[in-house]
Each structure stands twice: as structure tokens, then as C-alpha cells.
Design brief:
The structure is a single chain. With 226 residues, the protein is α+β, with helices and mostly antiparallel strands. The protein has helices at residues 30-46, 70-91, 111-122, 124-127, 162-176, 181-186, 188-200, 206-213, 217-225, and strands at 13-19, 50-56, 60-66, 104-108, 140-141. The protein has a 5-stranded antiparallel β-sheet, with helices on both faces. A hairpin with a 3-residue loop joins strand 2 (50-56) and strand 3 (60-66). Helix 1 packs antiparallel against helix 2. The two termini are 29 Å apart.
């Protein structure tokens, strides 16, 4: 997980990845992909979300999202994947989850990171051997730019454990706020800030957050919903 600068609460750009449960295919044909894209674009008009770039692969999706409200990102992804999951199960006469229960997201802070992220998303089908150039792939969209970006962009490990991600984020939060974990537990305002971030940005469960914070699940639940 990357280290966050002091401005990590202020960014509006997020690279989001969601994939099929057990890495299974979630798009069996072009009609499925078109349905997902249509729903993706429809929901942006209903919520405070802007899609700057995307790439739809057979078993996962990459999105570059701009939003000024973190909660909107969580709501958007939940609505999008829930809507598609119902469509997929009905069409293929299946039951159960279609997507992994949590999407992965990573904040973008600088112009260089932004351009690298766009390049990374566009090159997904090239790296998979589906096509030789990004523009040949029909199920992606991204802004063109002339800047030369030499730095390699690496997205967060999609198999990284939620516990490890939670632990590292808490450590960084404590460092940036010059506070100990014991002090944080008594600071209601900061405690609510970190619980909301872990829940809404990283889709961690109350149990996972409680375990790393050394608090009960009920306390974390009440803090989040207060």
C-alpha cells in the first residue's frame, strides 16, 4: 500500500478496480460489457461521479473516478455492481455473488500519477495480449495526451489482505496526525474520520476495522453511524 502525503484527505481522483469473485469471468460476451458500460454512465448522471477513464476486461474493471465526496464513490460502486450482478444472475440463471465483496481503490495526488494511471488503464488489454495498441480495444475509454510519462505505475496489489491494508492505513493516519492509537481512541472526531475512511474508501468490514483498532465491533458500528 502506498504512503499517503498530508493532503490524502483532499484528493478528488481515485483509481478503482473491481473483479469477479474468485477472479471468474463477469462478462461472458460483448453484450454484457455494453450493459455494464451503459449502467456505469447512467449512474454517473444520478450521483456526483465523473468517469475520466475506464477499461472493461473479462474478469475485472478499471475506473479512474473524480468525485469531491468519498461517500459518493462507495454508493456508486455498490449500486453499479449490485445492478449488474442482478442482471448477470438472471441472464445466466445463477445465484450468489458476481463480484468480490470489496472493490480496491487508490487515491491519485499528482499530475504525474494521474497521467500514469490513465496510461496504466489504457494498456491493460495490451498487457493481456488481447491487442497490440490501446486504441484497438473497443471496451475502454480514456483521454489522449501528448505528455511522455516514463515512470512505471503500479496499482495496489489486488490480492493484498484487508487486514494488512487496514493496519498500514492506521499507522499512516497516526503518523500524519502525530497521535498514538490510545490517544486516537479517545478523540471522537479523529476516530470517526478514520473509521469513515476505512469503511467508505476501502470497503473494510466493521469486524476488520475493530480488530485493528482494538475496539469492539459494536463501538465501531456506533461511531460510523453516529
Amino acid at each position: 500500500m502506498p504512503r499517503y502525503p498530508r493532503s490524502y484527505l483532499n484528493t478528488s481522483f481515485f483509481h478503482v478496480m473491481t473483479q469477479g469473485i474468485n477472479k471468474n469471468y463477469i462478462f461472458d460476451n460483448s453484450n454484457d460489457i455494453v450493459y455494464y458500460i451503459n449502467k456505469m454512465e447512467q449512474l454517473t448522471r444520478e450521483q456526483k461521479i465523473e468517469i475520466l477513464a475506464y477499461c472493461i476486461m473479462n474478469n475485472h474493471v478499471h475506473l479512474l473516478i473524480r468525485t469531491n465526496e468519498i461517500g459518493e464513490l462507495s454508493k456508486y460502486m455498490q449500486r453499479l455492481n449490485m445492478t449488474y450482478g442482478k442482471y448477470y444472475n438472471k441472464k445466466y440463471n445463477k445465484v450468489g455473488f458476481v463480484f468480490r465483496d470489496r472493490y480496491k481503490s487508490e487515491a491519485i495526488y499528482t499530475e504525474s500519477q494521474l497521467y500514469n494511471c490513465i496510461k496504466y488503464i489504457a494498456n491493460n488489454p495490451v498487457k493481456a495480449g488481447i491487442c497490440k495498441a490501446p486504441e484497438e480495444y473497443p471496451y475502454s475509454k480514456y483521454p489522449k495526451f501528448d505528455k511522455t510519462i516514463d515512470d512505471e505505475y503500479v496499482f495496489i496489489d489486488t490480492d493484498e489482505s484487508n487486514e494488512k491494508m487496514c493496519r498500514e492505513f492506521i499507522e499512516e493516519f497516526l503518523k500524519q496526525n502525530s497521535i498514538t492509537l490510545n490517544k486516537l481512541k479517545t478523540d471522537k472526531e479523529k476516530l470517526k474520520d478514520i473509521v469513515k475512511l476505512l469503511k467508505e474508501r476501502y470497503q473494510l468490514s466493521f469486524r476488520e476495522i475493530a480488530g485493528e483498532m482494538g475496539l469492539s465491533k459494536d463501538i465501531i458500528y456506533r461511531i460510523y453511524n453516529k
